[in-house]
Amino acid sequence: MAEHEEPKGESLMDKISEKIHGHDSSSSSDSDNDEKSKVKSPSSPSSVKSKIYRLFGREKPVHHVLGGGKPADIFLWKNKKVSAGVLGAATAIWVLFELIEYHLLTLLCHGSILALAVLFLWSNASTFINKSPPRIPEIHIPEEPVLQIAAALRMEINWAFDILRDIASGRDLKKFLSVIAGLWVLSIVGSWCNFLTLFYIAFVLLHTVPVFYEKYDDKVDAFAEKAMIEFKKQYAVFDAKVLSKIPKGPLKDKKKA
Length: 257
Fold this sequence. Notes:
Layout: H1 2-40, H2 45-50, H3 62-65, H4 69-75, H5 80-99, H6 104-129, H7 143-168, H8 173-192, H9 195-215, H10 217-241, H11 250-256
Helix pairs in contact: 5-9
């Protein structure tokens, strides 16, 4: 009987040793996989995504860049009916004042005449149709929202003046030249059309460009990166040939000293 039990004992020990070796190999392979994953973690999609060039240094979604809230929802067509209604109203105003050449004072007078005629007919016909005459509502504007809007507008105006003062100081020559070039281009565009048409074009662009950029932001950012690299090359050449030869003012020399 002892001779028959020894092979069983040996086989049991063999099985235990195999399990131990198998566990060690699996743990070592898991540790190797963990090390490989740690090594590969720097090239993970999140780290690669953070290195992607974004237009204007954008780090937030387009919805947050546009300020969030209802205006951003309208520009990004989150509610298609509201966005289409706003764009349709702007188009109707542009058609009235630009294509049909309707004047604002004429429109206000004609609208007032139509409203008075409707109210007059309704008031006199109310006795015949057994309905109460129309009630003209009273407008109540809360004081707090008006003060908040005025305070926000004051802050924005002061912020614009601060930027204008910083640009005009000449500390950043690149920014100064960029603003001058932008204003010059805007003046040329303004000479082609009046203010209403220019405002309508900007309004239409706000309803189309953000949506297009949100859908194809990767392709647009890649193209913008190439354009920015080329612009930097051309600016470096312009700086070496022109800007570097401009004599610096005494104020800059005193600051450096």
